Structure formats: C-alpha cells, structure tokens
Amino acid sequence: MRIAPASSTYQDTPYTIQPGGCGDPGDHIHLTPQYVATLNLTDNLATFGPAGKVFVHEWAHLRYGVFDEYGIRGDASYPLFYRPETTGEDSASVAPNVCADEEVKYTTKYLHLQSNYIFLFANRMISYLKGML
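-> structure tokens emitted (133 positions)
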C-alpha cells in the first residue's frame, strides 16, 4: 500500500495498480494523503463510501487480480466505452465497458462537430443495469 500524491485521472480516489491480466495480483494500492486524513469525515464517506468497504474492494484487485465491472471516465486503460475488435479502428461502433452475463442493449447518437464525432449515449443501458440490481 502506498500513500502518494493524487493522480490526474483518479485524483483522491483509492485505486490499485494492476499491470497483469485477470487473476494476476496487482502491484500496490494507491491512497492519497487527503483520502487518509479524511477517512471518517462526512464528505469522504459520501464520496467514496465506508473505508472498510473501499479497502476490501481494493484488496480484491491487489490480491486476486479482480477487475472492476465498469470503466472509468478519462482512463485510457479502463475506459467507459471501447471499440470492439471486430469493428476495426475506422468504425464508429463502440460498446459500454460493463460486466454482464448477457448483451447490454444501448443506443448511440452521433453529433458532427468540427469534423469530429462526439458520442452521446442515451441510456436504455441504465434501466437495464438497474433491473439487474
């Protein structure tokens, strides 16, 4: 476990460095000084949840090589969406990065803005995932 400055991607959110594949143990859990100093404060609990639950979650990543079942906004390694290999690089087809035992239904809308495509994901996916809980 390391206590080190916040990263630009995760900021004060605890995370585990996992360079291997699924089932391969991680390198270390990263906590920030700000997170540790405010473990039991209301804002910290509201943002991250109980410290024990956060620790167990990160320990599963570290010890057992478990990956999150969701992507992280702004993270190149664990994105919210990905381009399936079958579609090719030039394809506009993307899929949500989630863990589900059946295909997740979602809709995609494209907005053309200065020759770049911005993906707007309208979510039947959210209602689908809520139905799984």
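The CA atoms of residues 112 and 118 lie 7 Å apart.
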